[in-house]
Amino acid sequence: MNDLLDRLRELLLDTGYTIDGVRERLGDVAATALSREETVPALRVTGQGDPLGTLIRLWWLGAPVEARGAPAGLPLEELAAAGLVTVEGGRVTSTVHLQPWETGGYLVSDRKVRPGDPALRPDHVVGAGGASANLAQLASHRPVGRALDLGTGCGVQVLHLNGRAEEITATDVNPRALELARLSWALSGITGVEARQGSMFDPVEGERFDLVVSNPPFVISPAGRFTYRESGLPADDFCRDLVRRAPGHLAPGGTCHLLANWLHVDGEDWRDRVGGWLAGTGCDGWAVQRDVQDPAEYVELWLRDAAEQGTPRYRELYDDWLGWFDSENVTGIGFGWITLHDSGSLDPVVRVEEYGLPVELPVGGYVDEVLGAITTAHRLTDAQLLGARLAVAEGVLEERSGPPGAEDPARIVLRQTGRLRRSTRVETVEAALAGVCDGDYPLAPLLDAIAELTGEDPDDLRAKAPAVLRPLIAEGFFHISTG
Question: Could you give the CA distance from residue 139 to residue 366 in angstroms, rounded to a whole number?
C-alpha cells in the first residue's frame, strides 16, 4: 500500500493537483462557487479531459470519469484493489475524497455529501475545512517533544505537527477515521505517527505531552448521530470535560489548544460558564469567543452540513432540535478557541473574552507571547510595574480625532496593525506614555515627567497608573522590555 501511495503522490504532484494548481485550474468563479458547495461551475470548467481537470473531477468533485481518459500512470487496478476507486463499465468513481492541503500534503476522507446524496453513514469521516484550518492557525509553532492530536479525524493536524514535534500520537473514537488518517499520512509522506482508538484521553491514560491539539466533536445537539461532530454527551459537557481533563496530560510547560462550542443560557453569562471550565485546572487559560449564533441559525448550519436540508426529515429534525434548545433555555451557541498552558504557577490566570474581528494569521506564530502578556500583566505587583521598563509594541499606531481647530483631541485610540489587531481608547497620560516608552527608562520617572508637563500630582499618577496600564499590557499594546 505504501508503495502505491508513494506513486500516487508523485503523480498528483506532477499533474499539479495541489492547492494552488486546483485553484488556478478552476478559476475564481468556479473556486468560489465550490466553497459554497456548488459544483456546476467546477464541473463545467473541468470537462475538457486534461489530466488535472480529470483528477479534480474524480477526487474532489466525486464525479465519474472515463477510464480511458484517466491520466497516464494512474494505477486504476491497484487503486480499485485498495478500495479507493471503483471501476465499472469503463467508468471510474472515487470512493473517497482526496484533497490537497496547504502543508503540501494530502488528506483522505469520506466523499463530501451534497444535497440529493444518500444520508451520511454514522461513522462518516469528514474532510478538512474551516474549523481544521482555524485550529492549525491557532496552535503554537514552537518545536516540541511529544504532541497529541486528540480526535484526529482525517489526520489533518498531524500534517501541521509533522516536523514540529519529535513524536506524534493521534487518537479517535472512530476506527474508520484512523483508517483514513493513516492513508492521509502515508500519501503525505509522513511516517512514525502512533494512532490509537478511544474516546477523549482514554487512549493516552497516564501520559503527558508538550502540545495537545483537538478539533473535537463539539456540536451541541439532542442526540449524537454522527461521530465526527457529536459526542453524545449532554449539552456542552464534552468540551467542558475536555478542558478539565487536559491539564492531567500536559507536561510541565505544555500547552493545549482546542476548538469548542458552548451554550448561552438565559440568565447566565457565557463568560462565567466557560471561565468555570478553566477555573481550577491549575493552568493559565485564554478563551476567545469568535462567533455566536442563535439556536435557529445553529440548527440550520448543521443540518446543511449533513446535507439534510430539503429531505423529508428536515422539518422534524429542525423542530426537535429547537425544542431541545428551548427546554434547556438556550439563547445562543458560542464558538471559539480555548488555550491552556501549564506554566507551573501557583497563581494561574484565566482570561475569557469575545473577539470576532479578523486577526493576523497564523495566531500560532505569536500565541505564546499573547499568553505571556496576559499572565505578566496579572502577576506584576504595582511596585514591579513602576520599576519596569515598558516599550510600545511593534505595529501600534495612535489615532486622534476631534472637531476641526480644537486644541485637544476628543478621542485618542491606540490601534494594533498586526497580531490580534486590537484597538482601545486611551486618555492623555497613556497616549503620552505610548510616545515615550521605548524600553530605556523605568515607568516611574516617565510618569513623573508627564506629571510635570500636565500639572498632575506625580504621586496620584503613580498610584493610578498600574490599574490603567495592566489591560494595555495584557492586550499587547505595551510589553516589558528585558533588553
Answer: 10
Q: Taking a C-beta distance cutoff of 8 angstroms, is the pair 251, 210 a contact?
A: yes
Which residues fall within 8 angstroms of residue 380, CB to CB, at 6 or more apart? 388, 470, 473, 480
Contacts 24+ apart (CB under 8 A), 307-312: 307/113, 307/114, 307/115, 307/116, 307/117, 307/119, 307/120, 308/119, 309/115, 310/115, 311/119
Q: Which residues, 6 or more positions from 43, have their beta carbon under 8 angstroms from its beta carbon? A: 57, 61, 63
The H or E element spanning position 391 is: strand 390-392
| Helix runs in 18-162, H state only | 19-35, 40-45, 51-55, 76-81, 130-138, 156-161
Q: Report the first-to-last Cα separation within the chain, whole angstroms.
A: 55
Q: What's the predicted TM-score (pTM) here?
A: 0.93
Q: Classify strands 165-172 and 194-197 as parallel, antiparallel or unpaired.
A: parallel
What does the pLDDT look like over 434-471, one tens digit per residue? 999 999 999 999 999 999 888 889 899 999 999 999 99
CA proximity to 108, closest of 11, 48, 160, 182: 182
Q: Is 80 exceeded by the pLDDT of residue 369? A: yes
Other Cβ atoms within 10 Å of 166 Cβ, number: 12
In contact, 284 and 350? CB cutoff 8 Å? yes
The set of cell numbers assigned to 423 is 484597538
